[in-house]
Known about the structure:
Mean pLDDT: 82
Radius of gyration: 10 Å
Amino acid sequence: MEFKDIHIGMKCGSKKGSGTVTWVDGSTHTIYMIDCKNNNNFEVNISDIIEDPQAHNRKDDYY
């Protein structure tokens, strides 16, 4: 996935979990997300985003 394809409100999976994008930092290619289950914030690098939009970690819900 390319950085330009990420937008606020988008749901995506990452190596740290699935969530909704709340902010994108273009200078560092960092994506800030809020967890789907417990509303905890976390950040991931663009390289940690899972390419398949329906791919999830085992404990995550499908969206």
